[in-house]
Protein: DUF1049 domain-containing protein
Organism: Corynebacterium suedekumii
Amino acid sequence: MSIPVTDHLQTLALHAQSALVIAQQQQGGPLGPEFGKASPIGLTILAGMGVLVIFIGWSLARRYSRYNRRRVFAEQHGLDVFDVEAVDRAMAEAGVLDQRKKRWF
């Protein structure tokens, strides 16, 4: 049983017409003096994210410089870099141990 070609063309035309109706641009969109303006909350979020990135960079630089000081001290004194207790003890005896409170970040 075969379907005539005209039925296929009618079905195709119906699908094309429905796709055209769906794809048409809506006429009642958000227009007016307030359309496209950013809110102050967006600026606040961006500023907060900028401050956070700067803080993370500063914190990472601090941690890296402390690590580098400990590594250089351990290598100069023939200690194992990964033996934290021995390096802390040797740095305390030498008077160069950083006694500041360790931060949570």
Observations:
- The two ends are 75 Å apart (CA to CA).
